[in-house]
Amino acid sequence: xxxxxxxxxxxxxxxxxxxxxxxxxxxxxxxxxxxxxxxxxxxxxxxxxxxxxxxxxxxxxxxxxxxxxxxxxxxxxxxxxxxxxxxxxxxxxxxxxxxxxxxxxxxxxxxxxxxxxxxxxxxxxxxxxxxxxxxxxxxxxxxxxxxxxxxxxxxxxxxxxxxxxxxxxxxxxxxxxxxxxxxxxxxxxxxxxxxxxxxxxxxxxxxxxxxxxxxxxxxxxxxxxxxxxxxxxxxxxxxxxxxxxxxxxxxxxxxxxxxxxxxxxxxxxxxxxxxxxxxxxxxxxxxxxxxxxxxxxxxxxxxxxxxxxxxxxxxxxxxxxxxxxxxxxxxxxxxx
Amino acid sequence: xxxxxxxxxxxxxxxxxxxxxxxxxxxxxxxxxxxxxxxxxxxxxxxxxxxxxxxxxxxxxxxxxxxxxxxxxxxxxxxxxxxxxxxxxxxxxxxxxxxxxxxxxxxxxxxxxxxxxxxxxxxxxxxxxxxxxxxxxxxxxxxxxxxxxxxxxxxxxxxxxxxxxxxxxxxxxxxxxxxxxxxxxxxxxxxxxxxxxxxxxxxxxxxxxxxxxxxxxxxxxxxxxxxxxxxxxxxxxxxxxxxxxxxxxxxxx
Lengths: 336, 253
Hints:
The structure holds two protein chains of two kinds.
Chain A (H helix, E strand, L loop, with lengths): L1 H20 L11 H26 L7 H26 L5 H31 L4 H20 L10 E2 L7 H20 L1 H11 L1 H6 L4 H27 L1 E2 L6 H14 L4 H17 L7 H15 L30
Antiparallel strand pairs in A: 1-2
Helix pairs in contact in A: 1-6, 2-6, 2-9, 2-10, 2-11, 3-4, 3-5, 3-9, 4-9, 6-7, 6-9, 7-9, 10-11
Chain B lengths: L3 E10 L2 E11 L4 E5 L6 H8 L7 E6 L2 E2 L5 H7 L1 E3 L12 H9 L7 H5 L3 H20 L15 H13 L5 E5 L7 H18 L2 E5 L3 H7 L2 E6 L2 E6 L1 H5 L2 H8 L3
Parallel strand pairs in B: 3-8, 3-9, 6-7, 7-8
Antiparallel strand pairs in B: 1-2, 1-4, 4-5, 9-10
Helix pairs in contact in B: 3-5, 3-6
């Protein structure tokens, strides 16, 4: 009951914020379209970063193919809404326009998320047998395969790009799904299943010996993470109304990794901070576009030296509210 | 019927025969010691029983079922749990969570229940929390519950490994040198604890240990290995006076 009330409150706040930001109520809060777009892209980055953190930070499996799953979600959902949009609208003609848009978007996102999840399963089952560098290389390869595959599908524009996507996503939907992603990932990592993920990160052999089906846990975490990336991609396409596979190269995957590394692998709060920080810097340095990547390299190097665990490490926002209890005198543990 | 039965187990790594034609029978509730000099193949026997290796030949039966070649996780779910010679805790997790992970394999609630906070998940979490804390109390670790496992003193880490293995509710517990690195006093305490746990929970224990005093003190049967082959099997007193065992340890005169 409390959860339902909280959810209703979040929806109401987002709805009001959306109306205020876009000036729909002639509000003083109305902001320039550019700033609003940056805020919305930040929300999409939050979805991508938090979902990637589930597999990279909590499960400890280094994947760099997130952009591929994002692309699947983006193209699949855009194809659904662009092709079947009119038919769905005629069925739902009794609803007001906003509700029709919402229903159509949800339909597209569902298809995108399911296809991304299926792709995640197909990629995950063979590649999660590998560890460390090997897994990274395989996921990198798969991400590129997905991109090149889409580039050669004429129904979604091929090399010309996919235009004519209805504008269905906005601040409200993006931040609704960002909040949903955070809640779902938070609940997963705090659950019994989530403990198995962290156990795999800490010691896979011991986890298996303690009755954790490591393959199953890893694949589930990968599939959930892929589905969320698909949703992020769907929101992305319906926000910009145009898609091109150039948005989903491995550079995009690396960008998401930079966000979670800066914020802290294994911290949801860190992913949110990293995503916002990253897009703020990219936009803030827009005037120096050629030197942007230099700035990021330097930032990463400085973080790796000063704070290798990322800004938040593995801590969450809530842990700053409760003071950490330390044992009085624990003798240093000689590990041998 | 025997709980665990190894019949003619041989494990080869290329030209090296780590375990050679091993026969071993362990009854329910029995405390069985496996001894031998370094490199005798003791840990390999553990790895064969727990499915880390599939034996080159021979069979492993647990509770009447053939288990050799099965995945480790399946074998753990059948009721065999182990500790590691080189401690393998989940270092960055709390002591309490280390134990809770091991309860997972007996839990019912799935991922969907966790995401939607179903009552089934919450009540199960409460039960796991209670039982984990009870286990920590038995192993005198309750004061460390919220501490990260890697920050524990060495002896406590060894005890936590046993507590974690106990959380899978095993019928057979494999302990790989649980007293390694402990001083005589700590080792004695640990042995009393192991015996107490066996009496309380009634599972069989297969113990690999270098500390002879400890093995001879608590095991009902002792099995001596050397170069992968059985040297002798018998009661502790018989093994202690067996000339072949003495030769294996000290070398021929």
